[in-house]
Design brief:
Elements lengths: L2 E7 L27 E7 L14 H8 L10
Antiparallel strand pairs: 1-2
Length: 75
């Protein structure tokens, strides 16, 4: 089954229904460098709390996560 990924604002984390996504809790989420965005993944039908949001494929989310917004520069 294909996994789908949705980027959400950090302020939306309290509304995430962790029974409907593959992450187990707010503590297991990966945030962007600024700490204001995160993402969740799900399989099958989109959970109701994500309706209306953009869905990304695995290859699309990997490209996004490799960008500067999500990966701190190496010094």
């Amino acid at each position: 089954m294909n996994r789908n990924y949705v980027i959400i604002d950090a302020s939306e984390v309290p509304s995430v229904d962790f029974n409907n996504v593959l992450e187990t809790s707010a503590n297991t989420l990966r945030y962007n460098v600024a700490g204001d965005k995160t993402f969740v993944k799900y399989e099958g039908a989109m959970p109701p709390f994500l309706l209306g949001k953009t869905t990304y494929s695995h290859s699309e989310i990997l490209e996004i996560l490799s960008g500067e917004e999500w990966t701190a520069p190496m010094e």
